[in-house]
From TrEMBL, chains A, B:
Transmembrane segments: 41-62, 68-83, 90-110, 116-137, 149-173, 193-212, 232-252, 281-304, 358-378, 384-403, 415-446
Top-level taxon of origin: Bacteria
CDD domains assigned: STAS_SulP_like_sulfate_transporter
Name listed for the protein in its UniProt record: SulP family inorganic anion transporter
One Pfam family this sequence matches: Sulfate_transp
Key words, A-Z: Membrane, Transmembrane, Transmembrane helix
Domain STAS: 469-582
Compartmental location: Membrane
Membrane topology: Multi-pass membrane protein
Length: 591, 591
């Protein structure tokens, strides 16, 4: 495939070129051969079959015309194949991002209008720009500020919101909402609109899909199929449901009896679209675009890392940002809406044997063919069928055990999970994830502002010092050693002042205070002033202040200040040295 | 003075009663005697003389009628005397808070209107409520999130802004602004309004006050006065300037020649006022009230602590919040505006011999007498004289050396100082202090998200381990010890994963990785998942993961998870134990 001679089999000449870092396709395209082609093509066929109903369903979830889901599954996949670093990630519309799109765009325009679709396209473009810029400026670490409890809580709550939003469709009730309260109120208020035939289609399809997932696979394995193949066949369940319910609706004329159908989907290639560049719309969508970018990236990168680890491959998170960013820009330019890497379809892609991102490009061809040829057949597809596929898909996202697990591990993590779930359900996705992030940061800052300080003594027979309350250790009445279990910075500087003053003020024999700094990773300027204040206060009481086990970077900085000149005591390399040096002095002093 | 018999001389019965914690007056009122009364009264006279021109000047700085400055110096002092814990703090209107009041209220109403004054009263009430609630809920630690560099930068920039705002008054130019750009533009645009007589009064007074401060004091000391008395006399300079310029303005009819004067100040006791309780006005003022509360508290508490330390007394920061809060509520109920403890006047109070908060109550009587009797005499007081006293007072707040000092110590602290100064000057006080706080927190989070990790080895002849790059240490090829210099939490969990993977993936002989956790003060749930991922990844590579020197609280938590069951290696009490245990194994393995 490569027009450059390959010297070492697994690495083409371009693969080591610096430019390959920004075009990961160069790292594998040179070695692409017939075997890889076959594997990728097989995977692409399976993912295509899975992706067609999903694309339609998620577009409807986002409040968009179904064809936009197909468009979002064509060019974005090609862009990711060029710029992405994961070999198994399958990008396209996903449930949570579709829900977030609906929440963001729903504030700005009425569903079904051209403005609504334009806002979604603009959202994809902005999100693409944000992701690409984050990648180029290597800001991928920002995603780390979404803690695991916040993500887990957010995904669970989003799954519940999505499922609740689809119940209306299954009942044949229109309307919706962005929070659980709105959704339930809409259901109750409009229950009289319920369409019994839609209900039958929806409930039957949901039950069928659950059975396919839980019952069919074991059955197929019992009948001799390999587990992997059985799994893949079970994944085709939605396609069967789509085919059967569409046929039934057409044959029995159910659309005339009130069953909501997808209707006419324009056939053809994705249109060329341009986002809106209005200052107003960008201002209104910015926060949403940022949240969608970060949530999409975090979800996608964790799937990519999990799958890469299985084959001992590595992905580059910053380049992943560029891959997802260009995918979103491609989506905006071809009539799509925000996309990211999907968990279920990536696993299918991986299990089906995808070897390179080319599988994604082949999937794009499959969806393109569907958009060209298949759409007339989908006219009579009931919306309730798509709602059923969504419900079955998202309920696997819901994991309420995270509440119990976080409670057992730490109350702070539990608070983050519970708050994120409660606010996402109560006030919607954007408030939920924002509250989660802000709360986790606030709790972290709160914790570091009240650091753990342990008084330590020598573990007998060693040179090791531990907490006097937890271990049997040796101490000396004239010597207090305080191990500060936190970096010293502005938020806890005053705390330390108070702590040291309180500790020494009621204890007469103390002559030396040693601050053991093995856990002090930074001393900022505010903390330096506090140390100076402590030093001065102790000096007035006739007590010397010493430091021990100060880390290199911290010591470098202290040497640049005047603190060491004023320090009444010494700085010891190790706490043991400090004990050896100070204990005899003290004894002579007492003698 | 007390109607309760005192058992121990320095502590009355009420002083130990639990209720005394909330009414610090009980801690000293029982022992109050004639000596204390004399000392406090002398101090009160001196502070009163200093406070009269300051109260008028700061009220004008806040854009309020001058009598509101007097009102803010009466009841608030009584409230603080009852609820405050500092024995020397003198509360009342101060320069920075007056500037912040002008900025907050200036957004809502036109200067000179009744709405403007009402907004200032409401601001004092809200600030009082916020402070009192923070005190009752013991939220004083929140003030610690204002780092020293941010405060220093903010005070310096505020001093410059205030001085610039007063230049207009000295030139006889009306109008102003809330940022340096607005102020300078106003000066340049309206330069033609300049009144030469006002200029002469302003410049002469400024020069006189600077001379009093720098020149008079040495002169008085030379002529035999005690330094302390000379200092106090020099503090009376503004009163002399007020008297002379008022007389001159009256005698020469300068008010008719364009010199702006204070004009009629109503005589009488402070009026009883109620704040506005409109939802709108509370919403608009909330952020301002919060900022004023926190800045006022931080300034006040640091003065109080400095003065308390000189006499080995302690103040209670949470009760200080209540003291300042009730002072502000008292101010709002008696026609005043936000107050806090002032640096200069507290030092004067202390130096003049104030022994108890009763000195503040006596000062209140002094100011009350001034409000009753003195105001007609102040009719012809030129505003330029007050502007001169403000300029001389605030220039002592300006300390640009903080830029150099923070640059030398740490770039992060410098960034906080420089940003706070630049944004305060450029966009005003509220944006300035908010930007400073947000930036310091963001930089702290950024730093902790990329922790320092050191590979360590044994310092020969000890049991102590240090960085292999900084010290001559012993290591073993099959053993890598990484000391993580930060708590492990969501923001840096992934960083550690990447770091460990990168370190071991290119180094074949490694059989054991030890994470030395002496500086790890927390492992949150996100970090636990990362440790599990690291453990699994290393296991697949045939490498065991060990932990050493895990702190008690961290170990307790790990024991509540499943991590220790899955851990391929062990947890060692000390790093030395780990080395002893693993090195022979490794050697046998290699033999």
């Amino acid at each position: 495939m490569s027009r450059f001679p390959t010297r070492h089999r697994p690495q083409s000449r371009w693969a080591r070129h610096p430019v390959a870092r920004y075009f990961p396709i160069l790292q594998w395209a040179g070695d692409y051969d017939r075997d890889s082609l076959t594997s990728d093509a097989v995977a692409a066929v399976i993912v295509t079959i899975m992706l067609i109903p999903q694309s339609l369903a998620y577009a409807l979830l986002a409040g968009l015309p179904p064809e936009m889901g197909l468009y979002a599954s064509i060019l974005p996949l090609v862009a990711y194949a060029i710029f992405g670093t994961s070999r198994a990630l399958a990008v396209g519309p996903v449930a949570v991002i579709s829900l977030m799109t609906a929440a963001a765009v729903g504030n700005m325009a009425l569903e079904g209008t051209a403005e609504y679709a334009m806002a979604a396209i603009t959202l994809a473009f902005m999100s693409g720009l944000i992701l690409t810029l984050m990648g180029l400026f290597r800001l991928g670490f920002l995603a780390n500020f979404l803690s695991h409890p916040v993500i887990a809580g957010f995904i669970t709550a989003s799954g519940l919101l999505i499922a609740a939003s689809q119940i209306g469709t299954i009942l044949g009730i229109s309307g919706g909402g962005h929070s659980m309260v709105e959704l339930l109120r809409n259901l109750v208020t409009n229950l009289s609109q319920m369409n019994p035939i839609t209900l039958v289609i929806g409930v039957t399809t949901t039950a069928f899909l659950f059975w396919v997932r839980k019952g069919l696979k074991p059955l197929l394995i019992q009948s001799g199929l390999r587990p992997r193949l059985a799994d893949l066949l079970a994944k085709a369940g939605p396609v069967a449901a789509v085919a059967v319910t569409t046929l039934a609706t057409w044959a029995f004329g159910l659309a005339d009896r009130g069953v909501a159908i997808v209707g006419s989907i324009p056939s053809g290639l994705p249109p060329l679209t341009l986002p809106s560049f209005g200052v107003d719309i960008w201002g209104q969508l910015f926060v949403s675009a940022l949240l969608i970018s970060v949530i999409g990236f975090v979800e996608s990168v964790s799937v990519a890392q999990t799958l890469a680890a299985r084959k001992r491959q590595r992905i580059d998170p910053d380049q992943e940002l560029v891959g997802l960013g260009t995918a979103n820009i491609a989506s905006a330019l071809s009539g799509g809406y925000p996309v990211t890497g999907g968990f279920a379809r990536s696993v299918v892609n991986y299990d089906a044997g995808a070897e390179t991102p080319a599988a994604g490009a082949f999937t794009a061809i499959g969806i393109m063919l569907a958009a060209l040829l298949l759409t007339p057949l989908l006219h009579f597809l009931p919306k309730a069928t798509l709602a059923a596929t969504i419900i079955v898909a998202v309920l696997s996202l819901v994991d309420l055990t995270i509440l119990k697990r976080s409670w057992d591990y730490s109350r702070i993590d539990f608070a983050a999970v519970a708050t994120t779930i409660a606010i996402t359900l109560g006030l919607g996705v954007e408030m939920g994830v924002s509250a989660g992030v802000i709360l986790s940061l606030a709790l972290f800052l709160y914790k570091t502002s009240r650091p753990h300080v342990a008084e330590v003594g020598l573990v007998p027979g060693t040179q090791h010092f531990r907490n006097i309350l937890r271990h049997k250790v040796e101490t000396h009445p004239a010597l207090v050693t305080l191990r500060i279990d936190e970096s010293l910075y502005f938020a806890n500087a005053r705390f330390l002042e108070d702590y040291v003053t309180a500790r020494v003020s009621c204890d007469q024999p103390i002559r030396h205070v040693i601050l053991m700094c093995s856990a002090v990773n930074e001393i900022d300027m505010s903390a330096l002033e506090s140390l100076e204040a402590i030093n001065a206060r102790l000096r007035d009481m006739g007590i010397k202040l010493h430091l021990s086990e100060v880390k290199g970077p911290v010591m470098d900085r202290l040497k640049r200040s005047h603190f060491l000149d004023a320090l009444t005591g010494q700085v010891f390399l190790s706490q043991y040295d400090a004990m050896l040096a100070l204990t005899p002095t003290v004894m002579r002093g007492q003698a």
